[in-house]
Amino acid sequence: MTPSGDSVSRLRALRDRTGTRLERAGRDVRHAFRMIARMPGLAAVVIVSLGVGIGVNTAIFSWIQAVVLKPIPGVVDAAGFELVEPRTETGAYPELSWLEYRDLAERLRSFRELLAFRMVPLTLGEPGRTERAYGQLVSGNYFSALGLRPALGRFFRPEEVERPGGEPVVVVSYGFWQARLGGSPGALGRTLRVNDRELTVVGVAPPAFQGTVLALSFDLWVPATLAPVLLGGSRELEDRGLRGYAAMGRLRPRVTRAQAQAELAAAMAELARAYPVSNANVTAELVPFGRPPRGPQRMFIGALGILQGVMLLLLLAVCANTANLLLARASARQREIGVRHALGAGPWRILGLLLTENLVLALLGAGLGAVIAVWGTTALRAVPMIGGLPIRFETRVDAAGLAVALLLGVASGLVFGLAPAVQLARVDPQLALRAGARTASRSGARNALMGAQVALALLVLVVAALFLRSFAETRETDPGFRREGVLLAAYDLTGRGADDAAAREFAAGVLRRLRALPGVQSAAIATSVPLDIHGLPSRSFTLEGRARSDGGADEALTNTVTPGYFATMGIPLRAGRDFAELTDATAAPQVIVNEEFVRRYVGAGEPLGRRLESRGRSYAITGVVKNSLYDSFGEPPTPIVYFSFRDRPSAGGQIHLRTRPGTETTLAPEVRRVVRELDASLPVYDVRTLGQHVEKNLFLRRIPARMFVVLGPLLLALAAIGIYAVVAYSVARRTAEIGLRLALGATARRVVTQIVRESMSVVGYGALAGWLLALLVDMHVGRGAIDLSIFLGVPALLLLVATVACWLPARRATRIDPRVALGRE
Question: Where are the alpha helices (DSSP H) in 493-564?
């Protein structure tokens, strides 16, 4: 069927119109580049300021994407996973026991599958040539529930994980396979010596996958059923009081989170009735995997949300600043636009031409912003981490990040370019072409933009100052122990067949030698260090004289320590005495509790001498110590029970040495030497100072704080540039007026004062609006006392900078010869 003549004509007309539009668009773009080349200084300021604003927003989006939208690298739709988070009545999140996970996996029908995992440090290699590695103990359905396919080999088979102490198999990470196994297909079937046990490599994880703990990367995945073999006879597969597993899964189609939460609550209530000792006071809640309710990750995600909002405000301030710069530039283009009008160009044609120029500027800024964002995310991955934890941020600017940069560029071009374009498109050609067009004028648009820019700048600066103050206060918070002068080092006897007596004897020998070293004031060993990124373990207990109506047990954080721990950490003993020596075989089992434990569980009674029962053993409370921080900064007071290393020896320990502040690292070689004297093949891991360890907990909050430190002065400079441009434009339009006033006898000082006063009135209104907005934000978020140093100091600084930015062009304008100024008219 051949098209009719009318159809052919319409197609040709459409083609011609499309070709004409494309040709016009091409001419407009070429013209835009020519105009940008004629104003290199202004273009550079606009492109750089937009690039910084778009770059930081894109970088922050990539970080949010990495920890919230795509929290598990290599897993499709990772944000769709829901974490099952047990919660005690004290507000602690103790994680699940293995048996609890198995029970929930059977009861929770809202989930497609429920998988479980926990982080575990491992010793890799032959005796005498071992090194530290980090892995995860996982449920048999771990990889299938995540929807992963192996890069090589296979994952665990059901028969390999169905019984405790099952098949000795391991899956390695892609990076481990490449770096340690040569990337050879022959790696399958090879054995790795892990915790002095031979494990067979059966598969390699996908290249991007690094595990299921936010911001941590793992090398090995081992079935949880191997825990008794790898961890020195661990009873975690049979003891409901041994917690530490995380569980998560995807909801089934058409199941809402509310329905799943109701089913979870019912299941936890059923477990509480069936196992009151371990579950009576434990509930659970569902939270998205990328939004953990505890630990440094929660603080980081909250800080990222604040940072993203503030940086969007910064970009708006940059847009207002750019609009003012372009309005100032518009005064020099009125004659050009008048000529275009006179030659027949309509307002819409002029508007389109000017918006094209602005969009080209904005897209150049977006390109620079993408480069800055790529650099920022790469720099974040390259930042060295303190301590031995395998911290790795898989942040990168992908296609979504580039799309965000492009979208921000287009939006910014429209935001800052619309007002100048509309103003020029409405120019009267006769006035524009008239010789004496440089008359004094007032622009409500310019003043409104300048006021908005000042308001946004002040709001961003105040919020940044509040965040920095909060970060500084957090760093200066008394953690309840003395962080200066303590060296930490870890060892692990797991896999060496060390029983309780051998572990106790080893710890006693290490402490005896360390305490004899010159410069060592005290020494101790603990199983955990406070403010570690994975937190302290918790344990259920019952207390003499305290009866619960539900017949269940209470819950508290725990740490197992040797005598001398509290003196080494600088934690004051409020009542009672320290633990008995490790070699004392006569003293009864002991525990020491903190003040919050006494307040919550003992009340006004006497805590010393009371009996505390946990996991079938009875202990006497022999001391009370001051509260301190345990999991993260900002946490509420939390009860803790310290067990004696003598009563509950552990294969792994964290050595604590107190010495003169500033000399901690000089003891590191001596620690290694002492350990080698007792076991020549036992390595020492994670040697760091306690101060460095604490800084690791603050690392995730330090990233946004440093960005505020850099971007705050930059925003202040941009605000000054914008104010300067508006005032310079204004005085340029008033040259004749200024010349006439000077000719009539007005002093330069009086003219400058008037110009500054007029401009500062606009700045003042904008600053007042921004100040009120910042006050509302602080009252809503901070809910504390108003920091006058910030709410008075930041506006004062901004007003000072604005005054200088107004004074400079005003002062320069009064230096003109009145005869020259009048002659220009």
Answer: 500-515
3: CB partners within 8 A, 6+ apart: 11
pTM (whole model) above 0.90: no
Give 703-721 as a 3 state SS string: HHHHHHHHHHHHHHHHHHH
Q: What are phi and psi of 76, to 5 degrees?
A: -70, 135
Whether residue 442 is predicted with pLDDT greater than 50 in this model: the reply is no
> What span, in angstroms and rounded, lies between the C-alpha atoms of 339 and 610?
95
Phi, psi torsion values for 280, nearest 5 degrees:
-60, -35
Retrieve residue 298's tokens.
Answer: 């929660």
| Spatial distance between the Cα atoms of 109 and 112, rounded to a whole number of angstroms | 7
Average pLDDT over residues 418-422: 74
Assign 125 to helix, strand or coil: coil
Q: 314, 376, 321, 316: which is closest to 46 by C-alpha?
A: 321
The arithmetic mean of pLDDT across residues 731-750, rounded, is 77
Structure token digits, residue 478 = 């008394």
Which string of DSSP letters, residue by residue, matches 248-298?
Answer: EEEBPTT--HHHHHHHHHHHHHHHHHH-HHHHTTEEEEEEETTS-SSHHHH
Rounded Cα distance between 480 and 47, Å, is: 49
**Numbers of helices and strands, H then E, in the chain:** 23, 22
- pLDDT given at position 223: 96
Q: What is the pLDDT of residues 676-720, one digit of tens each?
A: 999 887 888 889 999 988 887 676 667 777 777 777 787 787 778
Cβ atoms of 642 and 592 closer than 8 Å = yes
